[in-house]
Amino acid sequence: MNRYYFNPYMRISGVVASVTGDVTGDLIPDIVYVTGYSESDVSIIQNMILGIRDGAIGVSVSIP
Predict the structure, then answer these.
(1) How far apart are CA 52 and CA 43, in angstroms?
(2) DSSP 3-state helix, strand, coil percentages of the chain (rounded to 5)?
(3) What's the superkingdom here (predicted)?
(4) pTM attached to this predicted model
(5) pLDDT of residue 11 exceeding 70
(6) What's the CA gap between 59 and 3, in Å, rounded?
(7) pLDDT digit string (tens) for 12-37?
């Protein structure tokens, strides 16, 4: 028996926007991105988090 549950209020989360550029000043491209979620019926992004991934060492930092 398969159980399938549909939630009409499901949150869709992921990367909202991203851009590549030198943020740290070492001339190596870094990635700056914003994550968050939106309810399925509205286009407002909630719980946004700013993330920066250092291109030289690959370490990510998140800022809530």
Answers:
(1) 24
(2) 0, 50, 50
(3) Bacteria
(4) 0.71
(5) no
(6) 40
(7) 678 888 999 999 899 999 999 998 88
